[in-house]
## 1
Amino acid sequence: MKKVLTELDKGEKGRITKILSGIESSASGAGHGHGARHGQTEPRNVKRLKNLGVQVGKDLTVIAKQPFGPIVIEIDDIQTAIGRGMAHKIYVSLRGSVDRDQEG
C-alpha cells in the first residue's frame, strides 16, 4: 500500500517510492514555477532532501509525529525532521509497523 508520508503513523515503516519536485503540476515545464530553474537538473527541494538522506529507494521509520509540527523519520540510523509541506510530497510503500511485527 502506498501513502503520502504525512499519512503514516508513529512506528510505521516503508520505502520511499516517489518524491514530487513541485513542478509536476506546472503545464509550462521546468524553468517556470517553483521547482527547477533553467539549467538545473533537479529542484531545490529534491536536492535538499537528498542531502538529508531522503531518496527514492530508501527505507524509513516514522519516529515521531506531532499534530501540526514536523514528522521525525529515521533513515540509515539517522533521524531527521521533515516539515509537513515537504513530507506531503514524499510517497512511501508501507512495510508494516514495529508493533505488528512483534505481535504473537
Note: The radius of gyration is 15 Å.
## 2
Amino acid sequence: MVAIDEIKPKNTIPFNILHAYNQKIVTADEAVKVIKSGDKILAHSNCAFPTALINALVKRKNELKEVQIMHALAVGNVSYMKPEMEGHFRHNAFFIGGNSREAVSDGRADFTPIFLYETPLLFANGFINLNVALIHVSPPDEHGFCSFGVEVGLTKTGAEKAKIVIAQVNKNMPRSLGDSFIHINKIHYIVEVDEEIAELPQGDRDASPEVVEINKRIAYNISELIEDGSTLQMGIGAIPDFVLKYLADRKALGIHSEMFSDGTIDLVEKGVITNEMKTLHPGKIVAGFVLGTKKLYNFINNNPMIEFHRQEYVNDPFVIAKNYKMVAINSAIEIDITGQVCSDSIGQKFYSGFGGQLDFIRGASRSNGGKPIIALPSTTKDSKISKIVPFLKPGAGVVTTRGDVHYVVTEYGSVQLFGKPVRERVISLINIAHPDFRESLLKYASENKYI
C-alpha cells in the first residue's frame, strides 16, 4: 500500500501540466472573490469539507447577501451558520449533522429531504444551477488528474456542472480510485493547503458501558443474519462497525455501500472481505465516501481494491439490486408497531436526513437473497422511552414505509415483517421491544383491534 505522503511529487509531473497548474494558483482570499451575492455554492461534504476556502468566504460576509451554501454532513468549521451570518449566508442541508442542527431548527438554514442517490441529480438535471463548487482534492498525477479523495459521491457531479470550480489542493488528501477524478483543465482556481484531513471515527465515544453493551448485542443479532458471500451496506454509527467485529468467521464477503469506515480494514486484512462473490464489480469494494481516521485514508490511497463512484450510481436501488445477497444495515429513531420507520426527525424537529436508507432498503429487497435490515436499540439511552412505539410522534417523518420493512433488529432479537399482516407484525415487534414496555404496547394494540 502506498502511504499518502508518498504520492508522486510535483517535480515528476510533465512541464505542460505543471505549467497549467501553476497558472491557476491563487490565495484562498483571492479565489473566493469570484463569489457574488445570491450565488449557489456546493461545498465538498463530509471529511473533505474545504475549510480554508470556507474561512476565506466567511471573511467576506459584509460584502455578500443571500449566498446559499449546500452540502451534506460537514466535518469542519461551519461559522457561516452562526446567527450573526443570517442574511449573508444560508445553508441548504441535504443531510443534517450535529453542527447544522441548531441552524435548521431555528429556521436560519434549510433542509432538503431527498434520497441520497437523487441528490447529485439536482445538479445534473438543472433543478439547482450551481454558480461555484468549492472542492478539496489531491495533487494532480502525471496526467493532470486530481482525486476527490475521501468523498466522491455527492461532489463530482456538482463540480462538473458548476460554472466555476475552486479547488483546495492538499497533499494529504488520499488518491482514491474509480470514478473519482477531476482534471486541472476543469478547475478555475487552485488554492494549495497543507493540513490533515478531518477525521470522524465511527461509534459513540461518549456512550456509557450500558449503551455500548446494547449496541454490541444488536450488532451480534444482525451478524447472525449475514451469510457467507453476502455483500454489505453499512450506514453511519456505532452499530455497523460493531457488526463487522462479529464476522471474522464468514467467507467471501463484499462491500457495496454509500460509505464505510475503519472497521472494514481488519476484515480485508483477515481475508474475510474479498468481494470475490460479488455479482457487480467483483473483487472491488464500491462506495461513495468514507468516514473515519487517517488509518482509513492510508488504506484507500491508491488501493486498486476500492472504487469510488458517484452517489447516483452507488445508491441507485436498481444498481444495488444487482448484488447477490445484498445486506443493508440502517438505523432508526423510532418504529411504530405496524412497521413505519422514522429516521430523519424527532417529532416535528428535523434531526438528520434520508441518507441512503431507503435506497438500500429497496435495493436489498430486490437482490437475490438480499436482506434489508432496520436496527435500533429498544429504548433511548436513559431507558425511559421505548423506541418501538404505538404510533410515531406527531410530525415525525416516515422514511421507510411499513411496506418496505423486512428485518427489524433490537438487542432482544430480530424479526422478519415482510408479507405479514398487521396482527403478526405487531406481535413480532412487541416481542423485541424492551420488556418494560411490552404490556403497554399490547394494551394499545388490543384496544385498536390490531391483535
Note: Confidence is low (pLDDT under 50) at residues 1-8.
## 3
Amino acid sequence: MNGKLVRHLAPRTLRGRLSLVALTTAALLMTVLTVAFNAVTGRHLQHQADDELRARTAAVATTVDTSGPRVRIVETANDRLLDTNVWIYAGTRLLEQPPSTTARSPLAQAAVRLASEQVHACTTVRADGRRDVRLCSQNVFGRHVSATVVAALDLTPYRSSANTLLVGSLVLDAVMLGCTYALTRLAVGRALRPVRAMTDQATQWSAVASDERLGSAEHPAELARLGASLDALLDRIRALLRHERQLTGELSHELRTPLSRIVIELDWWRSRPRSAAETEATYEVIAEAAQSMRTICDTLLYEARENATFPSTSPGTAEVVPVLRRLIEQVDIPQQVKTVVEAAEPELKAGVAPALLERIVSPLLANAARYAHARVTVTARPVLGDVCIDVVDDGPGVPADFTPELFRPGRRADCTDGHDGAGLGLPLARRLARAVGGEVSHDPGHTPGARFTVSLPAG
C-alpha cells in the first residue's frame, strides 16, 4: 500500500523527478551542514563561557593569599564585582560564597564537588529548573595550604545565541531549498527542451517516412547519441514501411493470375446453363487457383519473416521438370507461342521446396510468354553442384539502356507497350532465389530475344 502511494505521489515527468532528486539531495546535505554548524557553534560558545570563567577565577585567585599557615582573602577595590557568583574554599571548608545562594542550592553543591576534586575542572548545572549555569574551578597552592576558587556563569545568553543561529540556519535552509528546486526545474526544463524538440520531430518524420534525419553535429555528446538512436529508429521504420509496401505489391502481383482464372471461370460458368461435368471442371479450376493463391501467400509471408530463410522455413527438394511443366500449364501463354521444356537429366532436383521454385520461375516464364513472338524455351541443367534453369524467348529483348534498372522494384522498360505489369516479378524472383543461396541473372549478350538464368542449390 505504501509503495503504491509513493508511486502515485511521485512526479510523472522527468523534469519533476530530477527536481525532486535535486531537492532531496540538497535537503540531506543542508541537514548535515546545519547539524555540524550548530554543533560547532555550541562548542565554540561553551569554550567562550569557559574562557570567561577561567579569567574570572584567575582574577579572584589573585586575592587569595596562601603564603602563610592559613588561607587569607585580600580585600580589593573591586571586591564586589569579583565576588559575584564566586565560591572560595580552603580545602573543602567554605570561606566565601555569593550572598544569594545557600549551602543546599544546586550551585553550592556543585561548587563543593569541584572544590573536593582539587583539579581544574568545569561542569554544567541546571539551576532553578529552567536555566543552565556553568561552573569552573581553579586551585591556588601555597607551601602549607591550598585554596580553590569556583566561579559560575549563567549560560542563558549563550543558549539564546545558539538558538538564534539555529533558527536563522533553518530559515536559510528553507530559502536555499526553494531556490534549488526552482533553479533545478528551470535548468532541467531548458536542458530537456532539445530532447522534446527532437522527439516531436522524429514522431512527425516517422509518420510520413521522411528522409530527414536529426544528425549529431550541433548537439552535445548525450543528445548526439540520442539523435543517432532516433535516426537509426527512423531508418528501421522507413525500411519496414518500404518492406511492407514491397510485400503488398508482390502479393498483388502474384495473386493476379489465379484471381483472373477464378473470375474467368465464374464468368464462363454463369454465361449459360452448364452440365454437371462442366460445373465439376469449373470447381476443379477454381479450387486449383485458390490452392495456388494459398501457396503464394504462404511462400511470400514465410520469406518476409524476420531472419527467416527458406532452408529452415520451407525445407525440401523439388523435381525440376514436373514443376516447370506445371507452370507452363498455369501461365497464360498466347496460342501462337510454343513453349518447350528441355532437361539434360529428367530426374534433376533442386534443393528448395516446389512452391518456392514455382515462385522464382513463374515471373520469368510469364515475362517470356508475354513478349515472345513464337517460341519460349525452358532448359534445366546441372552446373557444378547447382541447378540452372534458362528461360529464353524470341521477343524484342531487354533494351540496353534499361539493363541496370531490370531488377529494381517498380521499373518497366516501356509502360505503354500494352502489357500489364507492375515491374515487381523480376525483383521478387531474384530476392527469393538469393534467400536460398541462389541467383537470377540476365544475359545482355543474348540475341535475339532475352535469356534469364535461375541458379539454385541442387537437391
Note: The longest strand covers residues 131-141.
## 4
Amino acid sequence: MDTQALKRDNAQFLWHPMAHPAAMRKTRPDIIARGEGCWVWDIDGHKLLDGVAGLWSSNLGHSCRPVRDAIVAQLDELPFFNTFRGTTHPRAIELSAALVALMRDDGVAAVMFGNGGSDAVEAALKIARQYHRLRGEPERSKFIALKQGYHGVHFGGMSVNGNPQFRRPYEPLLPGVFHIDTPWLYRNPYTQDEAALGRICAELLEREIQFQGADTVAAFIAEPIQGAGGIIVPPANYWPLVREVCNRHGVLLIADEVVTGFGRGGAMFGTRLWGVQADLWCLAKGISTGYVPLGATAIGARVAEAFDADASGAGQITHGYTYSAHPVAAAAALATLKVLVEDDVVGHVARVAPAFQQRLRGLVQRHDFVGDVRGQGLMLGIEMVADKPTRATLPKGSDLPLRVSRAAYRRGLMVRVSGPNLILSPPLVISEAELDTLCSTLEAAFDEVGAQR
C-alpha cells in the first residue's frame, strides 16, 4: 500500500454514508487496513479491538477460514449468474433451503434475496401490499412503524424510518406511513413500569390501526430491538401483545432483523427472544458475516400460501435485483450458517453476554454524564446526558460522545457514536478475555473524559 497516497486521497473522492462530504474532508475517516479475529489495524498499524463488528456485521470476526474458503471456491466454480425467471444456480437453491430449514420453527416457507438490509425491507413492504391485493383487500396499503426505528435508506425504508434525520433531506416520502411511540423505558411520557409500558405501547398500535381503519393497514414494521435508534430493548410483554393486535386486525407483522438476526441478541432471531412469529422477516448483515453483501426477506407460510394459491397472475413478483442471491454471497452465507450452528455461536453469546451487560451498566453509577446503559446479548448502548436527575439530553452538537470514542480509539478500542449514544456490537465470537479488555478499555476512556469535565 502507498500509505501516503491513501491518506492524501482519504475522503477526497469518496462520499461516505451518513456524513457531510465537507466534514469528512475536514476530519478524515480512520483508515482500517487489516483484520484478524476480533481485531483490526488501522493504516498506521494501530491495533484495535473491533467493538462494532464492522457495522453489526462481522459476527464471526475478520478471519473466519470456512467462509473465506467458500468464497474462493465459489469464485473458482461460478463467480456470477443471475436468478431472474428461468435461471438459477446451486448456491441459491442450497441457501434458500438452508434458511427455510433454519426458520421452520418460525413458520417461514420461502425467502427472497437482495443485496442488503435496505433491499430486504423494500421487498417486505412490497410483498405485504401485494399479499393483501391477492386476498381481495387492495385498500390495505398503509404502514405503521415506531418512532426511533431504523429501516434502511430506500424510499420505502426511509418512509417507515422513525428518525427525522434520515427522512427530512428526501421528503416527501411514501404516503400512508404513520409512526407511534416506541416502548422506550428510559424516555417515555407514560410510566416507568415495564409491563405497563408494554401494554400502553401495544394499545397505541391498536388505536392507530382503528383510527386509520384496519381495512387500510397493510403491516406494522419494527425491529425486535432498536439498533441505530439507541439500543432500545422493549418490555418482555410488548412483542407478544403486538402479535395479538396484528392478528385481531388482519395486519401483517414485519420484523426487521437486519441487526438482531443470526444471534446478536442471544437468540438466533430477535423474535425468538419473546416467542413470537412474524409474517415477514428482514435479514442481512450477519447472514454472510459481512464478508459479501447479502440481504434476504423471509416469508411466513400464511403469506406464501396467498401467492401459491393465486391463479390470476397477480402473484407474480415484479421485484428483484441483478445480484439477488449472488453465487459468492450465497456461498459465504451457507458457510456462515454452518459455523453458527456447528460452533454454537448463539449459545456462546447467551453465555458471555450477561456479565458484559452487567459490568458496563456500572458506568451509570460511575459517571454523572451517563444517563442509561441498555442492551441485550452483544448489543449495548450507553446514553450520555446533560443532567442525570432530569434526564436532559445533550445539547445539539455536543462533542462528549465523540471525545469518549476517540479516547477509546487511542487505547485500542473501536466503538460507534450515534447521537448521544455510544454503541457496542462486537463480533459474536469474542472471547471472555477480549470482552474483559473491551470493558476495561471503555471504562478507562470514560474515566479520562470524566476527569476532563
Note: The mean pLDDT is 97.
